[in-house]
Amino acid sequence: MASFTSPDEFEKAYSTLHATFATGITKSIQWRKWQLKQLWWMIDDNEDAFCDALHQDLHRHSFESRAVEIPSVKSGIIEMLDNLEKWAKGEAPPDPGFFFGTIGKAWIRKEPLGVALIIGAWNFPVATIFPPAVAAIAAGNCLMLKPSELSGATQNLLAELVPKYLDTSAITVVTGGPSETGFILEHKFNHIFYTGGSKVGRIIAGAAAKHLTPVVLELGGQAPAIVTKSADIDLTAKRLANTKLFNYGQVCLNVNHVFVDSTIHDEFVERTIYWMKQFSQDKTDGLPRIINERHFDRINRLLEGTKGKTVYGGSVDRSQKFIHPMIVTNVDVADSLISEELFAPILPIIKADVSAALSTIKPMPHPLALYIFSKSKAEIDYILDNTNSGGVTINDAMFHAGVPSAPFGGVGESGYGAFHGKYGFDAFSHDRTVVTMAGRWVESLLSWRYQPWDMKNVGKLPTTKATFKRGETMQDQLVGGSNWTDTNCPV
Is the pTM of this model over 0.85? Predict the structure, then answer.
């Protein structure tokens, strides 16, 4: 276990980052591209080492890390390299108006915010550090990376490799636990990006507010799945069982619990048991583990308090931090398994039709994700219209987070702010409006702006005309009488 960063070491790194940003070197497109390429080579050269560290921390199979976590970083780097110059150039406002289309020019500059702090999470210690770091570097910032101390092997690898590949005057790694993180948060940063739980998210938001520091919070929540009576039962069961085993349920996007229509409930449970057996039976040595004893004990308390019926799995082993994948039925919304985000390979199933499911979901905090399993467009539209979440995947789970050019983020208690692609670049950038006014030739056009005021010049003022008519009804706003979901959310 590497020693944590001392206060003196932190202060030195903190001062260095601010001094480096003041030089303007990170605003260089060449510097940004070089750091991104160096980051690519760091991942590519050490892929085996990263997979080994992830196995040490999470007992995760190398294939899972190579299929998900490593590619998410590499693809993000390539997208940034392909678009960096275009995004960094800035743009003209889409409608500059009379003044800045005629007597002046307006431009929106993309400028880095300064020194950014990125705090990663233990469940994906590579994918929660480097993708936001890629966006921060591309936007021209200096950055301090704080990996989770709970994933110690990966933390130590990052602390070892980053100085070997990246410009340490502008990009540095600090390590530590809660007390060290608290000390770090006493300092002013120009941006903070945090991935983790809502409890710590509130602490970070409060610390940032003292310095008026902008924050992106990628949190989580109890992401529900709704399985309607029209769903493909076997395919839904297969995909949900597989999703629940992904990183052993320790994913902010994972399905927390499932609402299943009573008419298909029994068949869905039967098929979910079948697929869970196929994916986990006699393969327990290859499955991940719960990150530590504290989280194991938390999950075990929830299991001890449930009134549900365990229809598959059930064995636990604290010495191995192992909880066998479980399916639990006869669960209601008051059950202990629904009291908080599980972050475990446990799938509670609640018998409820769409209406009952929505009546439960709507009063709850907005989750990071919602999953709808249905063949009916009317059902899907109804659920979308009556829920809120960070994102949605229909007839599968988590895939909305994999669209590289679409925003990924939460809403309400699942966080705020978004990243991925240009959204990440924008999150670490300041849109600075710059206007250049014309010279003396426009003075005759602008004579009305000089005091003393004279009402005879009212006719010279620029005017704005309405593009709509008096007498319109609310129904007139619907093009062709169609609801917006019919044209904007095809399924």
Answer: yes
